[in-house]
Amino acid sequence: MASSTPSKTKTAVGAVIALVLGIAVVAGVGFTLHKVSADPQPKEYATVHGTIVGPDGKTYPHAFIADGVYPDPIGSKAHGNCATCDGGHPSWPSYGPYTHFVLPAHTYVTMTLTVYDSGGSLNNPYFGRVVGTIGGTALYDGVAQSSIDPNNVEHTFTLHGLPTTTQDPLYVSVPLPLNTDKEMAAYNNDPTKLPVGHKVTFSFITAGAGNYVWNCEYPCGDTTYQGFGAVMGQLGYMSGKVTVVNG
Amino acid sequence: MTTLSHAPVSTRPIPNPKRSLITRLNMGTGIIVGAIFCWGTYYAMRAGRDMTDSHNVNKVLLASMLMWSFGFLVGIGALIGPFRWLIGKDLTAEEQLYLAGDGQGVKRYFKYCTDHKVVGIQYLVGVMTMLGVGGTMAMMIRTNLATPGSHLVTPNVYNSLVGLHGITMIIAMIIVATGPFGNYIMPIMIGARDMAFPRLNALSWWVLFTAIPVLCSAWFLGGIPTGWTAYAPLSDQAGPGMNAFLATIIIFAVSTAVAGMNITTTVIAMRAKGMKWNRVPIFVVGATISVALAIPAFPTFMLAMIQTGMDRTIATGFYDANVGGSGWLYANLFWIMGHPEVYVILIPGVAALMEIAPVFVRKPLFSYNAAIAGFAGIAGLSVLVWAHHMYMSGWMPSLNGPFMITTEFISVPTGLLFLVLVGTLWRGRPWMKLPMLSVYAFLWNFLIGGITGVYLSDVPADNYLHGSMFVTAHFHYTLMGAAFTGAMAGLVYWFPKMTGRMLNERAGYIAFWLIQIGFNVLFLGMFMAGAQGQPRRVADYAFVYEHSNMISTAGAYSVGIGMITLLWAVVHSWRNGKIAPMNPWGAKTLEWTVPYPVPLENFDVEPIITSDPYGYGKAAN
Amino acid sequence: MVNHTEELLPPTPGQRVSKFLSRKDVRQTFILGAFFTIVFVVLGIWVYPHWMPNVLSKEMQADEDIMIWFTVISAPIAGVILAIAMESFLNMHRGDTPPEDGIAMRTHTPVVIIWSSVSVLFIILALVWGMVSMNTDAVKAATDAPNALVVDVTGSQWAWSFNYPAQNITTHTLNLPVDRPVTFNIISADVNHSFWPVQLGVKVDANRLTTTVIHTTPDKIGVLDVKCAELCGLYHAYMETSGQVESTTDFNNWVSSIQAQGGTQ
Known about the structure:
The structure holds 3 protein chains of 3 kinds. By secondary structure, chain A is an alpha+beta fold. Chain A has helices at 8-37, 73-78, 181-189, and strands at 43-45, 47-53, 59-70, 94-96, 100-104, 108-115, 138-140, 143-145, 153-160, 172-177, 198-205, 210-215, 239-245. Chain A has a single domain (42-245), classed as Sandwich (Immunoglobulin-like). In chain A, a hairpin with a 2-residue loop joins β7 and β8 (143-145). Chain B is globular and about 65 Å long. Chain B has 21 helices and no strands. The radius of gyration of chain C is 28 Å and the shape is elongated. Chain C has 2 domains: 13-90 and 108-143, no CATH class; 148-260, Cupredoxins -  blue copper proteins (Immunoglobulin-like, Sandwich). Chain C has helices at 2-8, 13-22, 24-51, 58-90, 109-144, 248-260, and strands spanning 149-156, 159-164, 169-171, 174-177, 182-188, 193-197, 204-206, 212-216, 222-228, 241-246. Chain C has 6 helices and 10 strands. The chains are: A alpha+beta, B mainly alpha, C alpha+beta. At the B-C interface, α6, α13, α14, α15 and α16 of B face α3, α4, α5 and β9 of C.
């Protein structure tokens, strides 16, 4: 080992290189984390067709958006509906093909969810009620209802956000009806045969631009405590984002 | 002394117990055997199990991780001695000398080496690695929180970052002083030739080592959503990454039990002739009280984790209210460990500063007895305060009063620690070297950590502050601002004895100021966020907390750059630093009476102690 | 002659104190101590009201008062510590060799006793303050309970819901009438949460199958933020909702508008 100490310039250069290297390593870790955790959620943009008069008498642009809820990613993949389903969790149900919804601000949004999954009881029966939609109801296969039986729920679409001074509140919660065992029978034998499904349609009016999240309140994480582990704890299956944008 | 050669020179023939398995085993064989045990367990247990059931996944993973740890210990030869005992024999003298690593150069650092100085260096490198990993995670957390909107990572990754930063730093901070200095320096300080149980010493390090890959594996198993406190029932619900956390704690608890017993026994039984209890250097007292406190604390954590593991693998319901369990059981077990644990971290750091202050002020330690009373009082009270973490949990609100009393009374012994340090400074002319600067940083940081601690211990104020960023800022002021500052002072102070070289002063100063100023900006910003009402452990926050979070992040980057500078200073100085004289600071403790490299058994002639090591100064006029 | 005799006698305690106080370093320390004390007092009085959100209840006012006054009370202690540290820092010695030894003062019993006594007194003061404040809250809760508005709070991963049994409505926002005591019964549908209506200065965990209870009386009108203060998994950060403390008339209107919608908001 050399006993002579290196020159001052050499030491200083070494220190600077080490510093840059250190920062680069940390930045690299950050970049990698950002990449691997980057929004895995395919975005769906609402499309505007014409205008509609809201319950307050004002005229709003009318936007439409649609998505599905599948018993598991394999099922939805088989139907070409799930863009990111990797089959890594064959027992996990999922919203699909989209979990990130982009909506225009100050717009009357009509959302249609087609549900193909079975279900059961909610942990909190509150989420069996329809909240925050126009008229406080949703159309269940064409029939307007303000709630469904909290013991016969497939999943829920519960949209909420941080209350802040810079974005308007937006809260929508709609329970989705389950497919009965009879309706699921064919699928249970052959995962490519999805049931006919149920269509749930509801409308709400977005306020200003903002970032919100949605999640499902039906405990579909099987075999975990209160059913909220597994799929419920992993972003992009039973949870996602809603972004409201201007213009 | 300046002619000391840097390479270790042995005067004895290198022992070479040929045909003994011991000579062929090292970290590499440990990893291989560990990996075989791990994968073997994994595939054997997986076969025929329904892996869509989370309980089965947990069983397989938990068993594989624990078997890795066991396999590693088999592979590195940790069990050869115990096996020999089983058949009525022991290691031969030659093998024991071989295990001490004499004359084996760098290789001994990768072996099951019983020399306390080798174990000390292993701990030092291990601690620095863990601090680096934990610090990188802290940078990620602060980057994500720099602006509202959680732009860097998803909530899954954020929650994992928070939890794994927490546990990595807690483990690193528990061993940051007692690991490197407790093992390398402390036996020399008390005039011992080695630790009381050299093989257990090696065991404590290598057991801890096996926890590191286990903890890292959490990242590849989906992370942990629970934070480092791993509260149940969230931990019952958590994904496969949680198993890595459980296994880490179980392994770590074994390591601390072994190390704690070893250090305590060494100090009780192996002090040099004449080193009565009132002549023991204060760092030794602090480190001993700290590990003695850890001995009852960590098994409780292990127990809590074993129960979580049972809930997760065989569906017991210790923490599941649906079947009669309670999350409060977990919270109690956790904090019975958790509050003594913060003092396990704090005491050695403060003790190191108390060791340092008299040397640089050239005055005796002010009121040695008050220092002992302070440490003992803290240790005694710290086992009676745990439920102050549970004021707002709803568990026994009627106990809030009694726990408030015990908690606030801990300020009295803590006040004594301040008294000892400011008393030592009083009328002194401090030699402003790097370790001494840390004493000032400590006083400022711990003062703020202490005062905010009084608010938090007060039940009505805790109504507002509990679970907010204010708590996070408070405990970083005590753990990082106080304990870490003390440990870093210890590193600079004992660096010459551990490496034979002086730490680069200029880089040290730059690092010190970047870290300390950045630290204060970072956590004053966080106090602000907490007072404003931002909960802790949130990936995203409302716009009102925008400025306080931006301030925190700016401070964090300064700390980050400072830490990289410090790391460079350590690595550079270790290789190229100025050769250190035997006693660069003019200190009076025993470790400065031995040369570098420290001989295998430390002392050629056993020292005899006639006074305490603080005999500085002239009589007052 | 007289002076001569006096010099031979040991100094009286009064003389010792006056000699002590005449020392330059002691005076400097006192000035620094006064400076740091004032800094902490000003910080305590200014910072917390400035940082903390609107105070909408007596409980919140009590929380804030404790933070302010504990800072003020501890300011002199902080002042002493920082002054001694600063005085010694300013007296530093630099260079590569250690300075001369200082005085060999190993302890000073009166100082240790005074220091310990002052910290015990400080703690007793803080304790009495805290106990009285706790007791005031408890007594108030007990006397107010019969007239209180009852709100059943449920924490679910990751949203709050509120049930007002007397009004027979269920909501996702928390509206409360001003000046009426309120009792929150809190429960969780799954893991632990912590119910934190920020501006009301109260908080308690939500536990599965065990109800926890807190009381408060909102006494000012304003916006409420309701947060979860216990890490509860994926969307813990988003488990927040808003609310309002409003006049009794506004509250009754809000209730009847929800009842008209079928009782759900």
